[in-house]
Amino acid sequence: MSVLLPIDDLKNKWPKNLYKARIGAVLHPASVGAKLEHSAEIIHKHHGSLFELKCFFGPQHGIHGHTQDNMIEWEGGIDPKYGIPVYSLYGEHRKPTTEMFENIDALLIDLQDVGVRYYTFIWTMYLCMEKAEEMGKTIVVADRPNPLGNKVEGPVLELDHASFVGLHSIPVRHGKTIGQLAEQFKNECFPNLKLEVMKMENWDESMYFDQTGLLWVLPSPNIPTLDTVIVYPGTCLFEATNVSEGRGTTRPFELFGAPFIDSEKLCVHMNGLNLPSVYFRECHFQPTFDKWAGEFCNGAQVHVLNRHTFKAFETGIEILKFLFHEYPNDFSWRTEPFEYEYEKLAIDILLGNGWYRKKFIEG
Question: What is the pTM of this model?
Answer without folding.
Answer: 0.95
